[in-house]
């Protein structure tokens, strides 16, 4: 063999060896190769599920809802629960999942006790590992919990608690509220009756609740040009309001605006002393249907309400009314649409985050986020995460077939009109 042929033969042999080595490396990446087996182990979860990205995307979104499901506020808690369940159904088109992740709802009864509310919230966060908190029926319960949202870096949707301090002095960036707050109620009350030159007297219990409510109302009413001619504060446990009402009659206001809560209401005495016959119109917030049945003496009253089922005119509310009738044989009540709105806000945020429930990411998405609710469009105000929303100027009227005065719409109070002061 010549030298040139020998060199050519050796080069050919090297090429064959190199090709065989390459083929061997490709084979080691096949189904039976050790590298592939190790890769498979790293991509599977502990339970042998799909790869980490896929398994994370299929893990349920867990929502812990705190509500008064027993006790004095049981009616409110159950309204929230019914609305929340329907809200998840509506927002997910009945799939009960978002971005490929099923939604799991865990309800806990706070018993309207702040200590119990905190205990139940810790259970939801530490044992159930929820991604969101929602609640609660009581402002006291809610204030006992809001700091945990920040500590555990979980979004908390406040519904239906109204205390201003939740999105005021006790605010933290993980708190968002679909419920209206006390100042929104006051602003709505003022917007319903206040105008340039209108004279208004007020009646409220001598308590923080009563005085804070009137303070917010007075600020809003005077801002619209009205004059507060008298403020009456009987004891919170009063049962005789004769002296207070006599002073109101003597002040000759155009309106009497009442802030009251509790069984010892002044409505019967207001009716007995015929304020409306003396030219003094009565105004207050129309409550839930059960409480409306106690307000028969106030037929003709002008005021406001957070919600009554036939006031909003939109597709979401139409759906809610129909589903409540189908599933519960009744109409949605005062706090039902709030529960639905809270659920819709969570699903909308998760759609935008593509299923990522990380608190810090959701904050960026939810600040300024608008979403459709039974009350129309709500928007989380970036400064304090309070949902700006419509309320309703109404007159209580008798209607055939109803055993309570029915709120009849005067006009919708827009989110811009009812926007409360920023207090954080």
Automatic annotation (TrEMBL):
**Chain spans, region Disordered:** 26-57
Q: Indicate yes or no for the key word Transmembrane.
A: no
The residues the entry assigns to the signal sequence are 1-19
Question: What superkingdom heads the lineage?
Answer: Bacteria
Acidic residues composition bias: residue spans: 38-53
Domain named Leucine-binding protein is located at 60-397
Alphabetically list the UniProt keywords: Signal
Q: What family does the database annotate? A: Belongs to the leucine-binding protein family.
Xref: PANTHER family: LEUCINE-SPECIFIC-BINDING PROTEIN (PTHR30483), PERIPLASMIC BINDING PROTEIN OF ABC TRANSPORTER FOR NATURAL AMINO ACIDS (PTHR30483:SF6)
Protein name, please? Branched-chain amino acid transport system substrate-binding protein
């Amino acid at each position: 063999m010549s030298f040139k042929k020998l060199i050519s033969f050796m080069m050919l042999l090297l090429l064959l060896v190199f090709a065989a080595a390459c083929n061997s490396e490709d084979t080691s990446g096949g189904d039976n190769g050790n590298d592939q087996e190790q890769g498979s182990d790293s991509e599977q979860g502990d339970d042998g599920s799909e790869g980490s990205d896929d398994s994370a995307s299929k893990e349920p979104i867990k929502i812990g809802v705190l509500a008064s499901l027993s006790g004095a506020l049981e009616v409110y808690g159950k309204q929230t629960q019914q609305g929340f369940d329907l809200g998840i159904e509506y927002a997910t088109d009945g799939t009960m999942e978002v971005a490929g992740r099923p939604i799991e709802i865990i309800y806990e009864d706070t018993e309207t006790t702040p200590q119990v509310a905190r205990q139940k919230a810790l259970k939801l966060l530490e044992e159930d590992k929820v991604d969101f908190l929602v609640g609660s029926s009581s402002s006291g319960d809610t204030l006992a919990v809001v700091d945990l949202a920040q500590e555990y870096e979980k979004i908390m949707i406040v519904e239906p608690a109204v205390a201003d301090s939740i999105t005021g002095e006790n605010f933290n960036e993980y708190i968002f509220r679909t419920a209206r707050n006390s100042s929104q109620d006051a602003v709505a009350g003022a917007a319903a009756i206040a105008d340039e030159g209108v004279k208004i007297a007020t009646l409220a219990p001598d308590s923080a609740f009563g005085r804070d409510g009137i303070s917010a109302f007075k600020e809003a009413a005077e801002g619209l040009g009205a004059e507060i001619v008298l403020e009456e504060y009987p004891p919170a446990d009063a049962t005789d309001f004769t002296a207070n009402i006599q002073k109101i009659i003597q002040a000759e206001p155009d309106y009497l605006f009442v802030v009251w809560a509790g069984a010892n209401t002044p409505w019967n005495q207001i009716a007995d002393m015929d304020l409306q016959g003396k030219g003094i119109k009565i105004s207050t917030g129309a409550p839930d249907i059960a409480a409306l049945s106690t307000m028969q003496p106030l037929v003709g009253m002008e005021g406001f309400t957070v919600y009554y089922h036939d006031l909003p005119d939109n597709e979401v509310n139409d759906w809610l009314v129909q589903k409540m009738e189908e599933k519960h044989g009744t109409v949605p009540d005062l706090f039902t649409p709030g529960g639905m709105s809270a659920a819709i806000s969570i699903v909308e945020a998760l759609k935008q985050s593509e299923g990522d429930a990380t608190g810090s990411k959701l904050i960026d998405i939810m600040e300024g986020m608008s979403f459709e609710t039974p009350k129309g469009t709500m928007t989380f105000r970036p400064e304090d995460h309070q949902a700006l929303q419509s309320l309703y100027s109404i007159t209580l009227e008798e209607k055939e077939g109803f055993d309570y005065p029915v709120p009849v719409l005067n006009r919708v109070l827009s989110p811009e009109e009812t926007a409360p002061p920023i207090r954080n």
